[in-house]
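Let us practice reading a record.
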Amino acid sequence: MANESRPCPCGIGDRFDYEGCGQEVQVEHIEAYVCKPASTDKAVIVIHDIFGWQLPNTRCMADMLAANGYIAICPDFFAGREAWKPSDDWSKFDDWLKTRDARKIKKEADAVLKYLKEQCGAKKLGIVGFCWGGVAVRHLMMTYPELKAGVSLYGLIKDSDDISNLLNPTFFIFAEKDEFIPLHQVTLLEQKLKKNCKVDYEVKIYPGQTHGFVHRRREDINPQDKPYIEEGRKDVINWLNKYV
């Protein structure tokens, strides 16, 4: 739960007890987790939150995508720098975050795209990101035209954010009770998109949900949230299926 001492909504939520079905690989200067279905030319880049590429929850989401027919890759977009830990001193979070700018990941994105195309035979590409990764998705969807669909899940919004130059369809998932993404900011985002965006988009707010609900809430111990967790995950797959 976010509070005064935590300047970010990323309380760990439910940490999944999950081993993962894929494998770790080296992609140029970074490591990555990859899970592949039997045969496909469709791939999705999965961008982690502040807890990094090894968080079991994020690997579970990658495996979910693979089970739906996509090569799923979750690279270390922190490029070897330490991920945040729930036990870390939250008073130092802002300084930590300054060294991990979600808008400055071109070197890593270039390496991953090259790997997917040359090593995995991927021809149709999408991208999904959670929290910190949700911000990264917005940036990359304005940078790489080969990314045919993007899903940004509860990426923090700044009033100054300009996302009117999205190159391909992008889906934005938010939680109604996210303490760090006020609904008025979501409304402002929608207004900017409606006025300036030239590609398909959707902004959806899930009632009663809190930050991280799609990948950091376990339906078996959050029964009241289960319909929204399942709906969010299904919506991610449907968006990718529509455009990738």
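A brief commentary: The longest strand covers residues 124-130.
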